[in-house]
Write a sequence for this structure.
């Protein structure tokens, strides 16, 4: 995905925000993933119904729907999972699901997309699934750039232990030191 960016364009502003957040959380995306993230943010900036979305039924419907309509539904679900886990991580608690629920669902939706589209796009969606957590980390760093302490420790522990979020790990390490991050082998979840 090549981008044409003028100095003061909306795209350039979003790109700058994403790159700055990536630097602050020590995550660097390749140009294709960075472009996808920027354009996804621009696509959903005015999505007023996002907060009311229930994703599991949409995911199932996308799985059952053939053709372009099913592809669009799955992409919407995957993108919204990325937005929820990155920009609105506390939403999981209000919905009474584990924090990593949106990560797992989003990764799965991107992988389903990869199996439905042509080869060039399949590689993109596989990459989005594989780097979902890094993109989530960037969105969290973007959202909480002025006050990372707003990300509560229980969410961070879930993102670190269940999703291998290095940003969550670093934030926990800054808050509690190295001792918290040493988990005895017998206490680690084998999954």
């Amino acid at each position: 995905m090549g981008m044409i960016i003028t100095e003061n364009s909306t795209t350039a502003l979003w790109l700058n925000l994403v790159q700055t957040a990536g630097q602050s959380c020590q995550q660097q995306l390749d140009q294709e993933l960075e472009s996808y993230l920027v354009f996804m943010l621009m696509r959903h900036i005015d999505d007023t119904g996002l907060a009311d979305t229930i994703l599991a039924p949409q995911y199932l419907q996308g799985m059952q729907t053939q053709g372009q309509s099913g592809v669009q539904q799955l992409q919407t679900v995957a993108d919204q999972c990325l937005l929820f886990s990155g920009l609105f991580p506390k939403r999981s608690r209000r919905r009474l699901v584990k924090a990593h629920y949106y990560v797992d669902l989003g990764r799965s939706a991107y992988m389903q997309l990869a199996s439905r589209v042509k080869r060039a796009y399949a590689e993109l969606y596989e990459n989005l699934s594989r780097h979902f957590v890094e993109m989530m980390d960037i969105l969290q760093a973007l959202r909480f750039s002025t006050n990372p302490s707003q990300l509560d420790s229980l969410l961070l522990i879930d993102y670190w232990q269940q999703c291998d979020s290095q940003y969550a790990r670093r934030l926990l390490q800054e808050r509690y030191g190295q001792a918290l991050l040493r988990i005895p082998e017998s206490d680690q979840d084998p999954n």
About this structure: The two ends are 35 Å apart (CA to CA). The first helix runs from residue 10 to 24. Residues 31 and 89 are 25 Å apart (CA to CA).
